[in-house]
């Protein structure tokens, strides 16, 4: 059974940094692209980032480009999102996702999410 | 960045049929956008219903189907059930960038 468990969320001040993690199990992590999607309180879904199976290619939404870095450790079956220069508008639940379709950016399986709050 | 548009809200009667659509500001939606459809209920993580235009997951009820219709991606629900009341989001891929639609709140009444 595919399982994706996010961690690392919390309260951070504007301008601060945070690293999210996503522990994967139930599938061969190293053979699939994985994604981050977020949802601000009361709002819709926003695609954030994706990384290919090998980690060789990464993709970002314009809203986070230059501030967020997606990475993965296939030996640990873990996905990361390093977030810098956080803003109030980054406040959201962040979902980790597994992509098993034909496009790297899509999300087929979802974690339960971790909440990030950017506030002073 | 492209804008993906969905109907803000739709209503369907129990047992009825409804089609949700997903348009792109860049023009016609094609299979090359690899359309996805997601269902989200309050307080829950999203669930993927349809991917790559028409493909279903093992958990996708048979009453849901995906297609391309009139230049848009479409999600058709045939034989709506009360438990289908939820928010539905579409997603399109743009060569290394993904964009979600704003969501459709579907009411079954």
Report on the structure:
- By secondary structure, chain A is mainly beta.
- Chain A has no helices and eleven strands.
- Chain A has strands at 3-7, 10-12, 18-25, 33-39, 45-51, 58-60, 68-73, 78-83, 92-99, 109-110, 114-118.
- In chain A, the strands form two sheets. In chain A, strands 2, 4, 5, 6, 9, 10 and 11 form a seven-stranded mixed β-sheet that branches. Chain A has a four-stranded antiparallel β-sheet with strand order 1-3-8-7, with no helix packed on it.
- The model of chain A has no long low-confidence stretch (mean pLDDT 97).
- Chain B contains no helices and eleven strands.
- Chain B has strands spanning 4-6, 9-12, 17-24, 36-40, 47-51, 55-56, 64-69, 72-78, 86-93, 98-100, 104-108.
- In chain B, strand 4 and strand 5 form a beta hairpin.
- Classes of the chains: A mainly beta (120), B mainly beta (109).
- The A-B interface holds A 35, 37, 44-47, 50, 59, 61-62, 95, 100-113 and B 1, 34, 36, 38, 40, 45-48, 51-52, 55, 57, 87, 89, 91, 93, 96-103.
List keywords for this structure.
heterodimer, A: 120 residues, mainly beta, seven-stranded mixed beta sheet, four-stranded antiparallel beta sheet, B: 109 residues, 51% strand
Low-confidence stretches of chain A: none
Oligomeric composition of the shown chains: heterodimer
Fraction of residues in H or I helices of chain A:
under 10%
Q: Given the helix and strand composition of chain A, which structural class is it?
A: mainly beta
Global geometry of chain B: globular
Total beta strands of chain A: 11
Largest sheet of chain B: 7 strands, mixed
Span between termini of chain A:
40 Å
Rg from alpha-carbon coordinates of chain B: 13 Å
Task: Please report the number of helical segments of chain A.
Answer: 0
Mean pLDDT of chain B: 97
Q: Strand fraction band of chain A?
A: over 45%
Q: Which regions of chain B are unreliable across 5 or more consecutive residues at pLDDT < 50?
A: none
Got a strand count of chain B? 11
Q: Kindly state the mean pLDDT of chain A as a whole number?
A: 97
Q: Proportion of β residues of chain B?
A: over 45%
